[in-house]
Amino acid sequence: MQLSIVIPLLNEEESLNELYNWIATVMRSNSFSYEIIFIDDGSTDNSWKTIKKISAEDPSVRGIKFNRNYGKSQALHVGFAKAEGDVIITMDADLQDNPEEIPELYRLITKEGYDLISGWKKKRYDSVISKNLPSKLFNAAARKTSGLKLHDFNCGLKAYRKAVIKNIDVYGEMHRYIPVLAKNAGYSRIDEKVVQHQARKYGKTKFGAERFINGFLDLITIWFLSTFARRPMHLFGALGVLMFFFGFLFAVWIGTSKLYKLYHGLPNILVTDNPWFYISLTTMVLGTLLFIAGFLGELILRSSREKERYRISETTGEI
To answer: Are 86 and 50 in contact (CB under 8 A)?
Structure first.
């Protein structure tokens, strides 16, 4: 099978028939072998009834329904697990992604050898204040942190080589950072393509301003995990040693100052009356705790059964 089109959705009954017909027309006109996987993320409208009706009429359409709303990342995770195509396309169900882009995305993956192509909605029809400006700031931070030169990390329209989606784990709200997850998994052929953005035709957006706050928090999580998950001692141990060292210097300075004043008969106070004593003590204790945290992290990594130690991209001959 050439293509799997994975579409997560929430309360999009008005757009589903139009979206399906549009995709099916593009697929047939290009003679693609394909499947469409709709993931209903706990819709409360008639989305699931519409999906079942479409699926009954077209065997290339499959539907998955969640009992409640779990989030886009969980929907994509299930869709990726079920996808069987050589190239996987993800898109939103609100008709803001154009299915006419699919043939070129497929060509870039199969002919140009890319692992992942991310859509870039260069010209948007969203509100400048509520969506465009925060999105620009969000994408700038993601580029700086990840090293990927993409303009639109959160674009729902993306194309993946099958091996990519089978070797990454999309969880939490990490759907925004699938290109980063792919890069961290060792897939370096990642690029973007300018795609057409269309104004929402039905309903209203399901995402509020909180998505940008969550997005930045997830970005910090990915940066931390990709940098220190395999070597926690490099972070906690280094910070611990540094804090203990400065605390120890403060303690030496307090003790030396006390002895100097006693030797020369100068006025002095009790060490315990000196606020720097408590600062130095606290710093050394915190430094010790950080070092122990790093050490325990290393022990856990070495003693636990890791989910996977490495990935093999391909083999040849007899193994």
So the answer is: no
CA angle centred on 79, ends 53 and 42, rounded to 5°: 60
Closest among 156, 316, 139, 304 to 232, alpha carbons compared: 304
Nearest to 1 by CA among 119, 78, 64, 89: 89
Structure confidence by residue, pLDDT tens digits, 205-242:
655 556 667 667 777 776 776 666 677 888 888 899 99
CA distance 86 to 62: 17
2 Ramachandran zone, left/alpha/beta (phi>0; psi -120 to 50): alpha
Q: What are phi and psi of 155, to 5 degrees?
A: -65, 130
Gap between the Cα atoms of 52 and 2, Å rounded: 23
Tell me how far apart the alpha carbons of residues 306 and 53 are, in angstroms, rounded to a whole number: 43
- Pairing outcome for strands 61-65 and 3-9: unpaired
Distance CA(281)–CA(254), nearest Å, equals: 11
| pTM of this structure | 0.73
**Rounded to an integer, what distance in angstroms lies between the CA atom of residue 198 and that of residue 278?**
61
